[in-house]
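dumping the sequnces here before i forget
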Amino acid sequence: MSSLVRIFSTVRRSAFAINSFTSKSCRILVQLYVVMNLTPKKTKRAHKARFIAAVLGSTVAVSSLSVVSVSAAASHSSVPTILLYNAQGYGDKVAATFNATNPGFKIVVDDDSTGPLFTKIQAEMAAGSPKWGMFWADGATEFAALDKLGYLVRYVIPKTATYNASGLTNVPADRSFAPTGVTATGALCYDSVASKGIKISTTMADLTTMPKGAVGMNNPSQSGPTYPLIAGVMAHLGGITYEETPTTAQVNSAIKKGESFYLALKKNGLQVHETNGPTLGAMQSNPATLDMATIQSSACYGNIDAQPQSLWSTGKVKYLDYSVALPSNIAVDNKLSPALQADAEKFVAFVTSAKGQLAMQKGDPYGDGLFWPVIKGVNPEKFLPAYASARAYAINPYVWGPLENQINTWFTNNIIN
Amino acid sequence: MTTSTLTHRLVARLRRVRWSGLVLWIVLLLLIVIPLVAFVLVAISPRLFRQGPSYFTLSNISAAFQGYTGQGILDSLWVSTLAGVFAVSFATTIAWIVQRTNIFGRRIWSGSMWLLLLVPTWMTTLGWIDVVQPGELGSALGVHTLFFYHMFFGASGIVFVNATASLPFCYFVISVGMRGLGSEFEDAARVHGASRLLTIRTVLPIIAPALLSAFAISFAETMSDFGVAFTLGSTSHFPIATYTLFNAIYAFPANFPVAAVIAAVLILSTVPPVFLQARVMRGRSYAVLSGRTKAVRRLQFSPLARIGVTAAVGIFMFFVIGLPLLGAITSSLTNSSSFITTSGIHWTFQSYRDVFNSLPSFTSLGQPLWTSSQLGIYVATGTLILAFVLAKRLASRTSGISQRIADVFLLGSIAIPGIVLGVGYIFFFDQRFITSHIVDLYETMPLLIMGLIASSVPSQARLLTGPVGQIQSSLNEAARVHGASKWRAFLTTSMPLLSRALVWAWLLTFTKTISELAIAQILYQPGHEPASVVIETYLGTIFASIGSAATVITLVEMIGVIALVLTIFRLATPKGWRRVGEAGVRS
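..and the predicted 3d for all of it:
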């Protein structure tokens, strides 16, 4: 016997006494019967027990059959369906509101984080039979990447959309994805108790002069809104605006300045946590291990303004000389049939209407609903200050999107490690 | 040559084909091999999957071995080796103490190992974070945890979590080996004047197959582990291959070709341990079990030593499984971002209420847990059938090429990260010619079930090979000679002997399915998220305490199902079936 075969079958020959009666094989069955202890008196009880067990087992088995029927129900819907890959907290509620008034087709929501959804889209496109119909998430760089790969329907933004200034700033030239809201990343969240005695900085540059170890941020490889923040800081330091198409030299210069800024922060004890949750936890713990952090404003507001009671009553949000605009966007797959594309565009029109914007706010009032609307005439939730106070700097996703892997790798190697 | 002669030959040849083996390999090809090959092919032929301009290139291979990703591969190799060595060493010590001494509470320690086996690495890691992170449980107990926190978020933390995750499997494999090893070997060594240390050095090599197999599995499991990469790897400032693979797949845009190279390296890395094992064991016999094997004689500690050893094992098990569980439980009993806040600890059941009355932006746990449980039943049953058939082939006395291939293939399959299998499934089953002309399975429950079965079968087949290999074919032959049908012969001979192993294999697969994250996240049906996906969405956010509560509830459900199934087993099976599995063991 091959030694390879023996690798895991460590116990080859039986330790059971009954197995050794090989010469008198009939005795094995007799012995087994005795070992089973099935005397006539006990048979009745055993049958009863088995009956109970069978009923229990069958109940579980029958109820589990629904898992297969579940798949059938979704794939054989009576109306055409469009799959919405959704990373927004309010996506389900908005889709339900829309479906209620649009009976001709149905938006089916696939909720997940941006990363897995983006991976699925690319894997589906690679396989050649994409299932996704629309993609809705925070950030613009991933949408620019999909657009560059030729996956998106262009001119998807309806003519009826009446964008305000913050919305218009984030509309791409080929209108291949539609901004649906704006938040700011790089807002300075801090704990008023933990940072007592510290003069909170007023500019981004001043963060390098805060007490050692006082400042924190998220890991761009793990936290979606963090790469746009880093790119925004680089763009701001390099003076590259949203409209501009910079030269390679300008971009490289901006990157160098940004790298110097983050190296200076690191030298001053910059703390990098995985995502918003751990970063906020570090500021809220007792003793606090972090005094302040540049993260997404809506995450801070979500903790501070939580209902029925605040989760972070000592938390504050301060806008420095600039933050970075983080638009949420929606896009449509250009592999959809023309009829479904038209239907998907109806949904895009809905979320870029005043009614849709209100549905988004209502859908997740203390989470993702804390955005600044991009449609004229719609006010932000009462917890938010005026958008102008955020001094949000917009970046060109077509310039900074392709640099994401390069900059994240640099950050991992030089700041995190 | 006439047509009829050709037909006869063809018919004769077809008759000689072993259809069962053919069907088995077709199933394995569809479940594991083809999706995996589809994914790995991208590494050298990106254009096949619209990932680049080249039909053939080696540039991705060189890219994968450079910088951060190259470092990740090297780190993974030594981390897996170290985790394997630690797991085998501790498992051998504990197995010896539990099996061969009069330590108190032997059942408790074996039970703890089962509990540890059921808990996925991502749960363990998050539990530990809830202990060592400043402001969490450790701080509440007055321990200055910053040192441990930095230790944990580094190579030592990754080795520790992976070693503890591999510990139970090593324990069970080595325990089986020790049960069969009568104390006559130790006595012989002692009689010939060997010291205690020399006795151990003499006797341990006898269970080399168990030790080596435990090491090989630990190595493969650590190489492929996604849970640690997903949780600890991201902030540990220490790249490991599964994390760089995860980064390549989740990059904007995704770098599937480099991820494919890393996946291939992970799978191929299991080959050296297998061949090392083969080389070590070549030409030697380790057969020590027979019908005359004597019952084990336990070492009798003095009362004081007995208490001391029990306490040592207790403390060890508390650190390995008790503390992370305690961390998760205490975290779930607050609803603040940190366990201790500026205004103290706020004990509340709010997180448990929120789990079932979810916040607007989250899914409540009820339906996903039900979906996961249903998935668990299908996956565990499917896995059990396939793993049993594979185990029978592996344990077969007639060694053939197919058996050897199956053997290496199964170990290699253990090292496949779930995320690779998930993306491979999309690459293959979402191909247009399949979705248009054969079957459109992507984003349906059946495909998720297939993926989960594919990820469970290799390790379960390995687990069942031992018990299946114990059964002498004469039992079945005797039943057949006496007129029993194949099915009846199996039911009356093999089934009683295997029933406990089969039940535990089913339970293990069921619980692993509920906590599985990597494949579920890629392949779940929209609108029907499994529990692990829902929990993960909570854990990265400011609502992590709700995620902890959901984790605790999921664990309780797992334990509840184990209790239910064991009760059914107790009610449904004759007493002798349970007794048979315990034969030869004195407790």
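The longest helix of chain B spans residues 67-100.
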